[in-house]
């Protein structure tokens, strides 16, 4: 009847996703279910005394109650994994009426993400906390016991990178090749093994900050640059402009024509200062139109000011002079999204702006700027043909920056190689040799292959496995190195008098490190797990021992090349690319100490390593002196990681006296008088590293036996060879 109350079904919100996403989510749920079925039932049996409630919880996992099956004996066995050791954020399993399994977790302690759906996709598994850990504020990484399903793992292991939060709480996607993502994996590893290695080691001022930053990256590159109140029509005196352009050409282009390589970048004609148009009677809009092309020069002045910045002797002097030039350039250039105003001529300005943003450690802003410049180039057909050699070289410089940022951020490149028909740089009258830029382009192509295929950020060859991808990347790098022209080859001592050639080989070594890094990290985990489980070391029989040695050799070589560049360019500092390369080299050399047996190292090798690490940290301290958060943060990470590695390497079953006698020689560093890192005491700074490490109370590492909550995880590190980490999410 009309008086009957209508009962409508509860509306269900529906979403539409691609089939590939659905299959991937189903596979992840299957992995999580298997992990839960391996770990949670015993904990429930131990911690839930009520038999009815216990049976209900276990039935959700498809398990029978061990109390009903085997009585109290099974319960006593299950008690080895107490539920109290699991944090409240543990995953719970619920079953809906349609039979689908749903995973429910407690809210993350991270700041609220900007994109909740995307953040949920990359949110990490819940963490397990040890009650007896000496670092109560640090949680162990998730324990997913799926190493028995290796074939499935090779398909399902995620290669999607991570959403990491900066100190302001902004989330940014950083893929597998990103150093920040690798550091996050390293934090998980350190958080797991450090409490196991030394149970009563107290958390000092060094190391704990690095570990507690899991899920974050310690830079400020999401912050906008300061908008300075400037007059865009003001220009320095002509002699000053000529001097700055000469500096830019010498430092960042072709060495004012003196470099045999011709340089590895090309920004445009820097031989003469611009001629300023008459503007006295013009309106502001007319002035902007007349001076728009001069934005390139303001950007060039900003790059020079930043690249040659030194710690101010007078604190009243503004050390951010480059930001004033860059603000003028932005005002003159206008909105880069206004396609009606932009032509191919502005591409060089945007390219140089992207380089400036890289030097200012505004990587996301540089990523957007370079991407925009590339799209403008494509819109005008520059990827197919360009009339003059100078414009062609500008496009290839833009291509190099695009590939560099793709590798730096772990993101797909803006344009694929197959879409580019433009000829490579070639020699032309009145221009420097093209060898350097041409080789840089070819190396950048290999970089794109490594990012897209070896790390599978955006694979275009899906039929080859991880072994073939790695071997192919190494083959391409070796082939590139063998085919270099004489002007780009290093001398017998592994160095060159051409700074551009040195930086090019640093980039080559960085790609070697990046390609081998998954194997290297797997060897670190395997070596340490063997110490805790089997008390043996199988490094000498490692199937990829040659590659491990090559990775360390590339790291050593990069630090030598960095010293050479500083000597050639004195008093100029390293570019951001050089700093990035030596940062990764230092991490590689520190991790090598966890793999190589201590007895095999000569005292002079230990001294050289100590001096190399001092050199790298000093370079970032120099950066921090001119107000760089990037320099301060990198120095903090390297100092903390150095202490953590030293703790993990300290021998066991020995007294402190023999340990001190075998310790590394005292540092010869001259940087301990200045420490830009906050919250460091003078005692910590002045104390030698070996003495500081051995002054801690040492204890025999525990023997992890079957039944320990981390036993299966550690065994998986030992049993699984490097091919198991096909996704390179180690």
Concise account of the structure shown:
Among the domains are: 1-106, no CATH class; 238-444, no CATH class; 608-651 and 665-695, no CATH class. Helices cover 51% and strands 2% of the residues.
Describe this structure in words.
This is Xylanolytic transcriptional activator regulatory domain-containing protein. InterPro entries: AtrR-like, XnlR_reg_dom. GO terms for molecular function: DNA binding; DNA-binding transcription factor activity; zinc ion binding. The chain has 26 helices and four strands. It has 730 residues and is mainly alpha-helical. Among the domains are: 106 residues, no CATH class; 207 residues, no CATH class; 75 residues, no CATH class. The strands form two sheets. Strands 1-2 form a two-stranded antiparallel sheet. A hairpin with a 5-residue loop joins strand 1 and strand 2. The longest helix is centred in the last third of the chain and has 35 residues. The radius of gyration is 28 Å and the shape is globular.
């Amino acid at each position: 009847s009309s008086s009957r109350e209508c009962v409508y079904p509860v509306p269900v919100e529906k979403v539409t996703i691609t089939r590939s996403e659905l299959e991937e989510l189903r596979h992840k749920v299957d992995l999580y279910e298997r992990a839960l079925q391996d770990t949670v039932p015993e904990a429930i049996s131990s911690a839930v005394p009520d038999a009815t409630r216990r049976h209900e919880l276990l039935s959700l996992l498809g398990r029978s109650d061990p109390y009903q099956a085997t009585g109290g004996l099974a319960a006593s066995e299950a008690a080895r994994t107490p539920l109290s050791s699991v944090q409240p954020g543990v995953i719970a399993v619920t079953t809906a009426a349609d039979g689908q399994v749903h995973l429910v977790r407690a809210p993350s302690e991270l700041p609220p993400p900007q994109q909740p759906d995307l953040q949920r996709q990359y949110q990490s598994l819940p963490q397990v906390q040890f009650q007896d850990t000496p670092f109560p504020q640090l949680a162990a990484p998730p324990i997913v016991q799926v190493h028995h399903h290796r074939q499935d793992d090779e398909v399902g292991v995620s290669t999607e990178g991570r959403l990491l939060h900066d100190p302001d709480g902004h989330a940014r996607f950083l893929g597998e090749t990103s150093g920040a993502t690798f550091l996050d994996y390293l934090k998980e590893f350190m958080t797991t093994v450090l409490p196991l290695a030394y149970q009563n080691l107290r958390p000092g001022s060094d190391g704990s900050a690095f570990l507690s930053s899991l899920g974050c990256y310690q830079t400020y590159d999401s912050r906008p640059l300061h908008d300075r109140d400037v007059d865009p029509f003001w220009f320095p005196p002509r002699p000053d402009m000529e001097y700055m352009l000469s500096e830019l050409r010498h430092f960042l282009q072709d060495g004012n024509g003196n470099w045999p390589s011709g340089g590895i970048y090309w920004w445009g004609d820097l031989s003469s200062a611009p001629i300023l148009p008459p503007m006295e009677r013009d309106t502001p809009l007319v002035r902007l139109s007349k001076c728009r092309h001069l934005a390139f020069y303001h950007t060039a002045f900003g790059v020079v000011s930043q690249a040659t910045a030194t710690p101010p002797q007078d604190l009243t002097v503004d050390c951010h002079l480059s930001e004033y030039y860059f603000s003028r350039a932005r005002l003159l250039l206008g909105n880069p999204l206004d396609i009606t105003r932009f032509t191919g001529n502005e591409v060089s300005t945007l390219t140089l702006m992207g380089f400036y943003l890289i030097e200012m450690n505004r990587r996301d802003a540089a990523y957007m700027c370079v991407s925009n410049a590339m799209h403008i180039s494509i819109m005008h057909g520059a990827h197919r043909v360009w009339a003059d050699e100078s414009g062609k070289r500008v496009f290839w410089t833009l291509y190099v920056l695009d590939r560099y940022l793709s590798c730096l951020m772990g993101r797909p490149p803006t344009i694929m190689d197959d879409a580019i028909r433009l000829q490579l740089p070639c020699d032309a009258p009145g221009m420097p040799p093209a060898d350097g830029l041409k080789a840089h382009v070819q190396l950048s192509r290999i970089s794109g292959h490594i990012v897209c295929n070896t790390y599978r950020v955006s694979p275009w060859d899906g039929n080859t496995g991880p072994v073939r991808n790695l071997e192919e990347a190494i083959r391409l790098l070796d082939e590139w190195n063998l085919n270099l022209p004489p002007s780009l080859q290093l001398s017998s001592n592994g160095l060159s008098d051409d700074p551009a050639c040195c930086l090019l080989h640093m980039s080559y070594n960085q790609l070697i490190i990046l390609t081998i890094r998954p194997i290297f990290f797997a060897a670190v985990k395997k070596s340490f797990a063997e110490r805790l489980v089997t008390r043996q070391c199988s490094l000498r029989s490692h199937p990829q021992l040659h590659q491990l040695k090559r990775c360390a050799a590339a790291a050593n070589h990069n630090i030598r090349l960095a010293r050479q560049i500083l000597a050639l360019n004195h008093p100029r500092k390293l570019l951001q690319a050089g700093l990035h390369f030596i940062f990764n080299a230092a991490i590689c050399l520190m991790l090598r100490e966890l793999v190589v047996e201590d007895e095999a190292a000569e005292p002079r090798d230990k001294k050289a390593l100590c001096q190399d690490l001092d050199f790298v940290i000093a370079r970032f301290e120099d950066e921090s002196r001119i107000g760089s958060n990037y320099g301060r943060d990198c120095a903090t990470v390297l100092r903390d990681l150095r202490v953590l590695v030293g703790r993990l390497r300290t021998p066991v079953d020995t007294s402190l006296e023999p340990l001190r006698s075998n310790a590394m020689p005292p540092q010869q560093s001259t940087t301990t008088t200045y420490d830009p890192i906050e919250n460091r005491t003078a005692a910590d700074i002045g104390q030698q590293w070996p003495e500081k490490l051995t002054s801690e109370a040492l204890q025999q590492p525990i023997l992890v036996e079957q039944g320990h909550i981390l036993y299966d995880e550690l065994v998986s590190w030992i049993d699984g060879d490097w091919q198991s980490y096909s996704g390179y999410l180690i």
